[in-house]
Amino acid sequence: MRALIWAGLLAITGGAAMAQDIIKVKTDKTVQGAMDALETVVGNAGATVFARVDHAAGAGKVDLELADSQLLVFGNPKLGTPAMQVDPLAGLFLPLRVLAYQDADGQVWLAYEDPKHTMSDLDGVSDAPVIEKMQGALKKLTTAASQ
Questions:
Q1: Taking the domain 22-146, which CATH number applies?
Q2: Which end of the chain is more exposed for a tag (fewer CB within 10 A), N or C?
Q3: Residues in domain DUF302 (predicted)?
Q4: What is the pLDDT of residues 114-138, one digit of tens each?
Q5: Which DSSP state fits 103?
Q6: Is 138 left (phi over 0), alpha (psi -120 to 50) or beta?
């Protein structure tokens, strides 16, 4: 019984910790407008956009409804390569991703996972200087796109 209680507590606290590692930036734009702005600032920053996924459109193709939600996948070898040099498994978490979505209240957000958390299980990557650069880039890009 104690094991079940501890497992439950770990699950609850682990979930709370995960939620804190998701960074959300509020915007008054639509999902489409926020993604267009993000794609522009990412390109202007010299990064490459690899994909833009429209989750709501995908849901519609199978007759399901989903609030507006789009994912932008992008990267820059100047940031990604050093992380992968420390541990090649960093490639599982790269390129970077930002989700623009509309919540149940109609508020639009840009959200991403803190790369320090994302790569915390990798040997030495989360403490590498490149992680701070990724954090700074994500903050700068999402802030610019949100305005």
A1: 3.30.310.70
A2: N
A3: 53-115
A4: 999 999 999 899 889 999 999 999 9
A5: -
A6: alpha
Structure tokens at 25: 């930036």
Phi, psi of 128 (to 5 degrees): -70, 145
Best CA proximity match to 94, nearest among 76, 68, 110: 76
Structure tokens at 91: 């490639």
Amino acid at 37: A
| Per-domain boundaries in the chain | 22-146
Q: Which of 132, 110, 120, 94 is nearest to 34 (CA)?
A: 110
User: Token pair for residue 147?
Assistant: 């305005």
**pLDDT tens digits for range 39-86:** 999 999 999 999 999 999 999 999 999 999 999 999 999 999 999 999
Backbone angles phi, psi at 83, to 5 degrees: -65, -40
